[in-house]
Design a protein that fits this description.
By secondary structure, this protein is α/β, with parallel strands linked by helices. It has four helices and 13 strands. Strands 1, 2, 3, 4, 5, 6, 7, 8, 9, 10, 11, 12 and 13 form a 13-stranded mixed β-sheet that branches. The longest helix is centred in the middle third of the chain and has 14 residues. It is elongated and about 60 Å long. The model has no long low-confidence stretch (mean pLDDT 92).
């Protein structure tokens, strides 16, 4: 399974991840700015996606071979970057910079991940948690004591859990009624299943 690392223009990670283990490294043009400031090894970036209206002539000259112009204003930079990653044959991507700052931006990134969830395994990372859409049968290991939140998107039916402090037994979750945030793993292994809908799991650090 080929795996990509993608930086987008949300809150910059305080500590940048290592590039070891990734077959491709990419960023939006907005994230390119904070990667430069944080002394990220820019030579390891395979492509930079965006309209590049905020970059200097020096950037254009030095990194021109890495630029992939994506001027379509009907799609976000995140969406366009995922299209490129998918087109290159990747099936898994770790994403940094998706949360923080303006919360409509964060929700928009979740919506984009929803659109790609059947084509790409997308895992988000920020200063507090990792989070991702899960299949209808899912197991998390080595999580005892960690915060586990279950967020329906927008609803999930027949949710059952094992290994959480507050268990669910064939229950329905919905953004307009009941969600499953701020639970905790009481076992090293947590099993989650649901019958219908979509579910995002947040695993605290």
């Amino acid at each position: 399974m080929q795996k990509a690392l993608l930086f987008i223009n949300g809150e910059p990670p305080k500590q940048l991840p290592e590039t070891y283990g990734f077959d491709l490294v990419a960023c939006s043009d907005g994230a390119f700015g904070y990667l430069k400031e944080k002394k990220f090894p820019l030579e390891k970036i395979d492509f930079i996606s965006g309209d590049f209206d905020s970059h200097s002539g020096e950037d254009e000259k030095v990194y021109q071979d890495k630029f992939i112009p994506t001027p379509d204003q009907d799609k976000t930079d995140f969406h366009k970057s995922l299209e490129i990653i998918l087109d290159k044959g990747f099936s898994e991507v770790d994403v940094y910079g998706a949360s923080g700052g303006e919360q409509d931006h964060f929700l928009g990134n979740l919506h984009t991940a929803y659109l790609f969830k059947d084509q790409l395994k997308i895992t988000f990372f920020d200063e507090y948690a990792s989070y991702f859409f899960i299949p209808k049968q899912f197991t998390i290991e080595k999580v005892k004591g960690k915060m586990i939140s279950l967020v329906p998107f927008p609803a999930a039916e027949g949710v059952t859990t094992k290994g959480l402090n507050w268990s669910l037994n064939n229950e329905n979750l919905s953004l307009t009624s009941r969600i499953g945030t701020r639970n905790f793993a009481c076992e090293q292994e947590v099993a989650i299943s649901y019958e219908k809908g979509n579910l995002v799991v947040f695993i605290g650090k």
